Amino acid sequence: MARETALRSQATTSALRLGERLRQLRVASGLTQSELAGERFSKEYVSQIERGKTRPTTETIGWLAVRLGCDAGFLANGVTTDERGRLEAALARAETMIEAHRNEDAASEYETLVSAARATGVPELEVRALIGAGRTQMRLGALRPALELLNAARGIVESGNFSDLERAEVFYALGICRYQLNSVQTSLGLLNEALGLAERSGMPSDSLRSNILSWRSRCWRRMRDYEAAREDIERALQLAEDAGDPRTIGDAFFQASLVADREGHWILARTYAERARGAYEALADRVHVGQLTNNLGGLNFLLGKTDEAVSLLKEAFGIALDIGHEGDAGRAISSLAQVHLRSGDIEQAEEQARHALKLLEGREDYLDEFGSAQLVLGRALLSQDRLDEAEAAFAAAEESLGRLGSASHRAAAWVARGDLAARRGDDRLAAHLYRTAAEALQDVRF
After folding, report:
1. Least enclosed by CB within 10 Å: which of 31, 240, 258, 413?
2. Prediction pTM value
3. Domains of the chain (ranges, CATH numbers)
């Protein structure tokens, strides 16, 4: 109810501003209301517009602008067509920066673009600026500010003056932000709404629907519903191919690789990852190339190719450092730490886990990697019989991974604590922790 009231107030304010501009332009032109209305309208209709009691159609605004010798865009929104064109060009430049992962540059642009778009009184420009600013803040790991920006965009598009497809774009961005904030159920609801709006719009939206399904598959994976995740990613791949957009295709194959990995189909996962990396290489998108290189390193390790895995992970680390992405660098080092831990190089695993934690500190959007690095550190310490230090690392990991709302992540922490209890000879506690982990991963209760 409060939102509806605010939207009605916004519409009334817009009509009042248009009416005031019309009155000022009419007076400056030396016309009475009757003279402006001519034979097309009544004096009373012009009076209603000037008093903000009614908002004329786009056609009527154009006709009145011609009569007054002014720009129709200025009459409608207080901004001329040329000014709007300059703002749209600036928004397009900022959006190109986002696609090129020039996140700091984009953030700097949006600092002025959001207020400039709002000042025009053109809702679609303000929404476009808010979505772009929100996406940029997500890229920088500033998820709460991003959420605030995207919720502001949501408030505008729900006014009823936007198409279903335009609303879908906002709900999609909000779904991504909520997922990164680990509100998986909320993210799922937003993505469902976005998909429904896109499908209901009847407008071409293959790329958008593919991206929505790719992100929804992440939600299903987090909830351990791998069948639903696979179904969504299969639909996403088909839509991506239909759209013929290299980036959408790359995104879909990236997520398809993650689903196959979770289901234990590592050769298929590697094939998908290579397809995705190829698509991003064609786009010169080094950020995603680095992320896929990291994933390929992990998959090659699972397939028994340790040397190749280490080489790929070091390459991923180098790419991340070169482009200034500390989060991805932390992910690569965390992956290397796991490889060294499983290969028996304990001291190297400890060193790299600590390095990863420094790089990932405070990054809420990398919380899963942060918790995983804490687990690796704890297991490295456990292997060196530094039991108290291992206990502290496992406790920290349980707290981090618990915030993800993922049963599998929590179970990994409980198993690690169970191993520590067993090393200390506390078989009762170890059995309890193992049982707790097992119950978290299946419906059967022991």
Report:
1. 31
2. 0.76
3. 2-78 (1.10.260.40), 163-278 (1.25.40.10), 285-446 (1.25.40.10)
